[in-house]
Specification:
Elements: E1 2-7, H1 15-29, E2 33-38, H2 50-58, H3 63-74, E3 77-83, H4 91-100, E4 107-108, E5 111-112, E6 118-124, H5 129-134, H6 137-150, E7 156-162, H7 170-189, H8 201-209
Parallel strand pairs: 1-2, 1-3, 3-6, 6-7
Antiparallel strand pairs: 4-5
Bound molecules: flavin mononucleotide (FMN).
Flavin mononucleotide is lined by residues 9, 14-16, 83-87, 124-127, 132, 137, 165-166.
């Protein structure tokens, strides 16, 4: 099993780094080939430059983007790890997906080109559950992940949310790490398509095949 871990956190003292270490250890224990993309340490440029956007038509990618695309094609599954900032993934992680999953590479005319892949995502929050529910932060992520991974053809979109992280006790953090290992086991112990998606990507594909969108996506 080939797995790319996309990690978006600026410093090593974070709880996200603890998740990253647990994820890598769990995946290796199950015999996976693992590539870690630490976006900050790689200094990945998240800004969409003119040539990056032109690549939607020209399919001429920068070396930086091309190398990422090759690894995405290599992967059977992606694992993403990030904190939630203002209800959303960090902007530099969004920039990674905007550039790497560009039209023409990841989808074309509403059809996902990255079929038969899966994503398992871990998110950390500072707030606690009732607040996050009330202000719809879980929904924001579900909607984004559907529009991103559903759109490009992923078969499974699995998410795990860790709340109240800065104020949580060592016991709770240990429990979160245990849950992370169990979450990683699902990559190996569930079949492709078994987890599924929560959204409307299949409907989109159907509408496109019936000509409704007239190739405008
Ligand atoms: C700029 C910024 C915005 C934040 N916005 C939110 C938010 O919208 N919701 C939330 O629950 N926590 C928010 N937080 C708190 C972080 O999510 C939390 O500190 C982090 O997930 C803890 O994990 P870490 O130790 O890996 O950073 C924010 C933190 C920062 C720095």
């Amino acid at each position: 099993m080939n797995i790319v871990v996309i990690y978006a956190h600026p410093y090593d003292g974070s709880f996200c780094k603890g998740l990253l270490d647990t994820v890598v250890a769990s995946l290796k224990k199950r015999g996976a080939e693992v590539k870690v993309k630490d976006l900050v340490k790689m200094n990945f440029d998240p800004v969409m430059r003119p040539d990056d956007l032109k690549a939607a038509k020209t399919k001429i990618y920068t070396d930086e983007v091309k190398a990422e695309q090759e690894d995405i094609l290599w992967a059977d599954a992606l694992v993403t790890i990030c904190p939630i900032w203002f209800g959303m993934i960090p902007g530099f992680m969004k920039g990674y997906f905007d550039k790497v999953f560009i039209t023409g590479f990841a989808y074309e005319n509403g059809v996902g080109l990255l079929q038969n892949k899966r994503v398992f995502s871990l998110f950390t929050f500072g707030a606690n559950d009732p607040y996050l529910d009330m202000v719809k932060q879980y929904q924001c992520i579900d909607i984004l992940w559907d529009n991103l991974f559903g759109m490009v053809g992923f078969k499974d979109i699995a998410t795990k949310f860790f709340t109240n992280v800065p104020l949580s006790s060592d016991e709770v953090r240990q429990q979160y790490l245990k849950e992370t290992s169990a979450f990683m086991d699902q990559i190996f112990d569930s079949r492709l398509g078994e987890i599924g998606q929560n959204g409307h990507a299949e409907l989109l594909t159907k509408l496109v095949s019936q000509g409704y969108l007239n190739g405008r996506i």
